[in-house]
From TrEMBL:
<feature type="modified residue" description="N6-acetyllysine">
    <location>
        <position position="608"/>
    </location>
</feature>
<feature type="binding site">
    <location>
        <begin position="408"/>
        <end position="413"/>
    </location>
    <ligand>
        <name>ATP</name>
    </ligand>
</feature>
<feature type="domain" description="AMP-binding enzyme C-terminal">
    <location>
        <begin position="530"/>
        <end position="608"/>
    </location>
</feature>
<dbReference type="InterPro" id="IPR042099">
    <property type="entry name" value="ANL_N_sf"/>
</dbReference>
<feature type="binding site">
    <location>
        <position position="499"/>
    </location>
    <ligand>
        <name>ATP</name>
    </ligand>
</feature>
<protein>
    <recommendedName>
        <fullName>Acetyl-coenzyme A synthetase</fullName>
        <ecNumber>6.2.1.1</ecNumber>
    </recommendedName>
</protein>
<dbReference type="InterPro" id="IPR020845">
    <property type="entry name" value="AMP-binding_CS"/>
</dbReference>
<dbReference type="Pfam" id="PF13193">
    <property type="entry name" value="AMP-binding_C"/>
</dbReference>
<keyword id="KW-0436">Ligase</keyword>
<feature type="binding site">
    <location>
        <position position="514"/>
    </location>
    <ligand>
        <name>ATP</name>
    </ligand>
</feature>
<feature type="binding site">
    <location>
        <position position="522"/>
    </location>
    <ligand>
        <name>CoA</name>
    </ligand>
</feature>
<feature type="binding site">
    <location>
        <position position="308"/>
    </location>
    <ligand>
        <name>CoA</name>
    </ligand>
</feature>
<dbReference type="InterPro" id="IPR045851">
    <property type="entry name" value="AMP-bd_C_sf"/>
</dbReference>
<feature type="binding site">
    <location>
        <position position="583"/>
    </location>
    <ligand>
        <name>CoA</name>
    </ligand>
</feature>
<feature type="domain" description="Acetyl-coenzyme A synthetase N-terminal">
    <location>
        <begin position="23"/>
        <end position="80"/>
    </location>
</feature>
<feature type="binding site">
    <location>
        <begin position="191"/>
        <end position="194"/>
    </location>
    <ligand>
        <name>CoA</name>
    </ligand>
</feature>
<dbReference type="GO" id="GO:0003987">
    <property type="term" value="F:acetate-CoA ligase activity"/>
</dbReference>
Length: 648
C-alpha cells in the first residue's frame, strides 16, 4: 500500500471547522475525560428535560449495559425539524432527485417536511400505533420514506427499514422478528429505468405474518392493482390528515430504530439504536467529518435501507439543519454520468459514496465525469469497504481534480456513525487508510489469539474499541445475550468489531477486511483486500475478489475471481501476466494460485461482494452456499460454479 500522504490545502484547513491542532487537542480531551467531552457535545441536541448524567457503561460479559444521557428526554423528529423552523423554515431540507432525470426534482422545505411528517404521524396514530410499537418500512427512495422515519420518531414508534431490494421472505422474517404493527410500502419502486413491484412483494411477505399487521401503501407510480383488507391508501390518508402532531417526549435510551444486519453466523441481527446518544453522534460526525457548513448541499448516495442512509441522509444532516439530497436512481442510469450530472444540477458540496460505485464508474472511462461541472464539490467521502489506492486515486484525480479532501470513513451498522476517518481540514490522507479515530473513539489492536493489546505503534491484529461512544448499538433486538456473545465475549472488556486492522508508524489505521476474510498463506497473514487491490490496479481488470481455499502445502491458497474490463478477452497469457503482476505489486507470497474469470461477482444489493459464497465455491463446497436470497443477481453464482477452477 502506498504511504504517500495528501494533506488538506492550507486554504481548506484555514476555513475548516477542525484543523490539525484542534483535532489533537479535542481528541486528547475526549479520551481523557469522556464525561466532560460528551457532556458538552450533548448540547448540540435540544432536550426537553436536560440530562444530569452523561456516560454509564459496562462492557463486562454478562452485564453489558450501555447508557448515555440516560435521564434526559427529547424528541428526535423535533430536533430534526421543529427546532429549525424559526430560522430556516423556508430552506430546502430535502432535495429529491427521481430515477428518471426527465422527471422533476422536488425541493422540500423544513416547513413542508414538518407538515408531511405530522400528516404521516397522524396516519400512523389512526392505525393505532403508539409509543414503543414497531413499524417496518419497505420503501423506494422517495420523500415519504423520510416522512415515515421521522413520523415514527415523532410518536415514539420504532422503525425498522428493510431495503427494498430484499425478497418477500426476508421482509416477512423481519416483520415477524420485530413483531411489527404496521408495514409501510409503496406500489412500485422505479430504479435504473425498471420497476420493482414492492406492493406485491409486501403481499407475499405478509402471507407469513399475523393478520393484524396493517399495510400502508404510498402511491409512487400508480401501478398498484390489488388491494387486500389490511391495506390502506397512505397517500389519500395523508392528504386528509392534520399537519399538526405534538412530538412525544422520549427518554434518551428509548430505541429510535432497529436495523437488521448480517453477521458471520446465523440469521441477521436486529441492531438497536438509541434516541439521544445516536442523534448526538450522527449530528456531530456529519458536521465535522464532512466539514458541513450552513447552506451546503450534502449528498450521500446510500439507500435509507442501510445504516449509512439512516445516519447520513436523514438523522445527521437534518439534525444539523442541512440540505440533504435523496436520490432514487442508480449511478449508471441513463448512463455512467448520472452521479456527476446530479452533482452539477443540484450544486452538491459534499459527496459521499461507496468504493464499489467508484470502481464501477472508473471502469466506464473519464469522459462521463469530465462532461459535468463539479466545481461546487468541496469534500468527497467513501464508506463500506476498504478503498483500493487505484480507485482512491481516480476519485481524487478525476472527480476531485486533486483539490478536494477525501474522507475514507470506517464504521459499521453497530457503531451508528463514523469511527475512524480523516477530518477534511485536519488529516493528511493516505489512499486506502481510514487514518485516525474520531473524537471519543479509542481503537485498540489486539493479538488475535491471546487477546493482548498491542501497544507498539506499528501493530497488526483484530480491531476492538476500548470504551463506549454515544452512537454505539445498545442491544440485539429481543436477544441481549446474542449481543453480548457477538461483540463482548471473544475479547473481554472490549467491543469487538470483527475487522482486522494494521497501524502504521504514523499511527494511521488500515482496515484489512473482516477477520473471517484474512487468509494465511504459508504462514503469512494476508488481507484478501490487498491482493484484490493489486489485481484491480491492472489496466485490464475491472473487479476482483480473493478468498482462501485449503491448500495441502501452504495451508491456504489464494483463489482469485477476476472480472475483466469490457471488451477484454480472457487468455492464458493474461492469466500469467496477472500472476506476475501481483507478485511484483505485493510479493511472491501474494501470487494467486488460481484465477477464475468471473463475468460477474455475487453481490448484495448494496454492492458488497459476498465472499462467503466465493469461499464455498473455492472450497468445492457447493452444498453449503447458504442463503443467496440477498444477492443482486443470483445467476452469477451458477456461472461461477460451472466454471470453477479445477484444483487437481
Ligand atoms: C467494512 C457500513 C474499510 C468493515 C457503514 C466493517 C470498511 C463493515 C469501511 C461494516 C472503510 C466499512 N474501510 N472497511 N471505510 N467502512 N467497512 O455494517 O469491514 O454495512 O466492519 O456498515 O464494512 O459494514 P456495515
Amino acid at each position: 500500500m502506498s504511504d504517500k500522504t495528501y494533506p488538506p490545502s492550507d486554504a481548506f484547513a484555514a476555513d475548516a471547522l477542525i484543523d490539525a491542532a484542534k483535532y489533537e487537542e479535542m481528541y486528547a480531551a475526549s479520551i481523557t475525560d469522556p464525561d466532560a467531552f460528551w457532556g458538552e457535545q450533548g448540547k448540540r441536541v435540544d432536550w426537553i428535560k436536560p440530562y444530569s448524567t452523561v456516560k454509564d457503561v459496562n462492557f463486562d460479559l454478562g452485564n453489558v449495559a450501555i447508557n448515555w444521557y440516560a435521564d434526559g428526554t427529547l424528541n428526535v423528529a423535533a430536533n430534526c425539524i421543529d427546532r429549525h423552523l424559526a430560522e430556516r423554515g423556508d430552506q430546502t431540507a430535502i432535495i429529491w432527485e427521481p430515477d428518471d432525470p426527465k422527471d422533476d426534482a422536488q425541493h422540500i422545505t423544513y416547513q413542508e417536511l414538518h407538515a408531511q411528517t405530522c400528516r404521516m404521524a397522524n396516519v400512523l396514530k389512526g392505525l393505532g400505533v403508539t409509543k414503543g410499537d414497531r413499524v417496518v418500512l419497505y420503501m423506494p427512495m422517495i420523500p415519504e420514506a423520510a416522512y415515515a422515519m421521522l413520523a415514527c420518531a415523532r410518536i415514539g414508534a420504532i422503525h425498522s427499514i428493510v431495503f427494498a431490494g430484499f425478497s418477500p421472505d426476508a421482509l416477512g422474517a423481519r416483520i415477524n422478528g420485530s413483531n411489527a404493527k404496521v408495514l409501510i410500502t409503496a406500489d412500485e419502486a422505479p430504479r435504473g429505468g425498471r420497476k420493482t413491484a414492492l406492493k406485491s412483494n409486501a403481499d407475499a411477505a405478509l402471507l407469513h405474518c399475523d393478520d393484524r399487521v396493517q399495510c400502508l401503501v404510498v402511491k409512487r407510480t400508480g401501478g398498484q392493482t390489488t388491494w387486500t383488507e389490511r391495506d390502506h391508501d397512505c397517500t389519500a390518508l395523508m392528504a386528509a390528515a392534520s399537519t399538526d402532531c405534538a412530538p412525544e417526549e422520549m427518554n434518551a435510551e428509548d430505541p429510535l430504530f432497529i436495523l437488521y444486519t448480517s453477521g458471520s453466523t446465523g440469521q441477521p441481527k436486529g441492531v438497536v439504536h438509541s434516541s439521544g446518544g445516536y442523534l448526538v453522534y450522527a449530528s456531530m460526525t456529519h458536521e465535522l467529518v464532512f466539514d458541513y457548513k450552513p447552506g451546503d448541499v450534502f449528498w450521500c448516495t446510500a439507500d435509507v435501507g442501510w445504516v449509512t442512509g439512516h445516519s447520513y441522509i436523514i438523522y445527521g444532516p437534518l439534525a444539523n439543519g442541512a440540505t440533504t439530497l435523496m436520490f432514487e436512481g442508480v449511478p449508471t442510469y441513463p448512463d455512467a454520468s448520472r452521479f456527476w450530472q446530479v452533482c452539477e444540477k443540484h450544486k452538491v458540496n459534499q459527496f459521499y459514496t461507496a468504493p464499489t460505485a467508484i470502481r464501477a464508474l472508473m471502469g466506464q472511462g473519464n469522459e462521463f465525469v469530465e462532461k459535468s461541472d463539479l466545481s461546487d464539490l468541496k469534500v468527497l467521502g467513501t464508506v463500506g469497504e476498504p478503498i483500493n489506492p487505484e480507485a482512491w486515486n481516480w476519485y481524487n484525480d478525476v472527480v476531485g481534480k486533486g483539490t478536494r479532501p477525501i474522507v475514507d470513513t470506517w464504521w459499521q451498522t453497530e457503531t451508528g456513525g463514523h469511527m475512524m476517518t480523516p477530518l477534511p481540514g485536519a488529516t493528511a490522507a493516505k489512499p486506502g487508510s481510514c487514518t485516525k479515530p474520531f473524537f471519543g473513539v479509542h481503537p485498540v489492536i489486539l493479538e488475535p489469539t491471546t487477546g493482548e493489546e498491542i501497544t507498539d505503534t506499528v501493530a497488526e491484529g483484530v480491531l476492538c474499541i476500548k470504551d463506549s461512544w454515544p452512537g454505539q448499538m445498545r442491544t440485539v433486538y429481543g436477544d441481549h445475550e446474542r449481543f453480548e456473545k457477538t461483540y463482548f465475549s471473544d475479547y473481554k472488556g472490549y467491543y469487538f468489531t470483527g475487522d482486522g486492522c494494521r497501524r502504521d508508524a504514523d499511527g494511521y489505521y488500515w482496515i484489512t477486511g473482516r477477520v473471517d476474510d484474512v487468509i494465511n498463506v504459508s504462514g503469512h497473514r494476508m488481507g484478501t483486500a490487498e491482493v484484490e487491490s493489486a489485481l484491480v490496479a491492472h489496466a485490464q481488470v475491472a473487479e476482483a475478489a480473493v478468498v482462501g481455499y485449503p491448500h495441502n502445502v501452504k495451508g491456504q491458497g489464494i483463489y482469485a475471481y477476476v472480472t475483466l474490463m469490457n471488451g477484454v478477452e480472457p487468455s492464458e497469457e493474461l492469466r500469467k501476466e496477472l500472476e506476475k503482476w501481483v507478485r511484483t505489486e505485493i510479493g511472491p507470497i501474494a501470487k494467486p494460485d488460481l484465477i477464475q474469470w468471473a463475468p460477474g461477482l455475487p453481490k448484495t444489493r448494496s454492492g458488497k461482494i459476498m465472499r462467503r459464497i466465493l469461499r464455498k465455491i473455492a472450497e468445492d463446497d457447493f452444498g453449503a452456499l447458504g442463503d443467496t436470497s440477498t444477492l443482486a443477481e443470483p445467476a452469477v453464482v451458477d456461472d461461477l460454479i460451472e466454471n470453477r477452477m479445477n484444483k487437481g
